[in-house]
Amino acid sequence: MDTRFISLKELTIMPEALYLYVPPIVWKGDAVGHIGEYDVFFWVLEGECFLRIDAQSYIIRPGQLAYLPKGKMRAYTHTSERFSMYEMAFSATAGGKSLMEILKLTEENFVVDIPDKSDMSKLFESSHRKEMFKNPLYDVALCANIANVIRIYAAEREKLQSAESLAFKPVLEYMAENIGVALKMETLASLVFMQPTYFIKKFHKLYGIPPMAYFNRMKIYKAMGLLAGTDMSIEAIAKAIGITDTAYFTRLFKKHCNVTPTKYRAEFR
C-alpha cells in the first residue's frame, strides 16, 4: 500500500452518521439498492447480513467488518431472527482526494475478518456513546475512532490479498452469476481445482456453512431484492432463483425470513 501521496496536513475525517441497530429496533436494510452518498462501515454483532456492492455479493457474519464505498451501488438486508449491527457513515479526505481511494480500498474484497473482535466492538461502542453527547472532545475521539477503524480495515485488506479466501472468489462470483441454475458440487470444486470433499471442508471452514447452504441463502437474498424492487409474481421470482415449485419456494422463504414472500413484500413497501 503506497501512502506517499497522503497529505497529512490536509487529512480530514468527518463523521456523518452512526447508528446502532438492536432488537426491538428492526433493520430491514435496502434489498433494492442505491448509490452510496458516504463511505460506510458495517460491524455485525449478531445474526448475519447480506451485502451486494456492484456485482460483488457477501454474507457478513459477526466478527467481520464490511466497507461500503461511496458512489457504488449497494444493497443489503438480513433474514436473522435477531440482528444487531453498527453502521458508521463518514467522509475522509487527504489533500482534497478520497482517503479510501488513495489507500486503494475502493475496489474488490470489501469484507474482512477482524482478529480482535473485542477491540473493534469497543471502537464502535465508544463512538456511539460519544455520538450521544455533543462535546468537542467527544467529536475529536469519534474522529480518532474512525481513523482507527480505517487503519485496521486497511491492514486486514492487505492480509486478504494473500489469504485463502481470495482463492474462493471465483466460486462466489460463479454462484452469483448462476443464481437460477441447479449447481453441482463438482462444478464449484473444479473452479478452485479441488476434490469435492476437500472443497466442502475448506469452504465450510472459511464461510461457516457448507457451499450449497451458502448458495441457497444467496437465492433467498436475491428473492428479497426482487420482492422489494419489482412487481414480478411470486411464481416468476421463484423461477428466477431456480425453484419451479412455488409452494416449496414459499416454505423455504418463510424458513429463512420468518414471513411469507407476500407478507415480506407488503411489509417492505
Question: How would you describe the overall organization of this protein?
Answer:
- The longest helix is centred in the middle third of the chain and has 25 residues, at 136-160.
- Strands 1, 3, 6, 8, 9 and 10 form a 6-stranded antiparallel beta sheet that branches. A 4-stranded antiparallel beta sheet has the order 2-7-4-5.
- The chain is globular and about 60 Å long.
- It folds into 2 domains: 8-162, Sandwich (Jelly Rolls), CATH 2.60.120; 165-268, Arc Repressor Mutant, subunit A.
- It is built from 10 helices and 10 strands.
- Helix 2 runs antiparallel to helix 3 and helix 7 packs across helix 10.
- By secondary structure, the chain is of the alpha+beta class.
- The protein has helices at residues 99-102, 117-132, 136-160, 169-177, 185-191, 196-207, 211-229, 234-240, 246-257, 261-268, and strands at 11-21, 30-35, 39-46, 49-53, 56-60, 64-68, 73-77, 84-94, 97-98, 111-113.
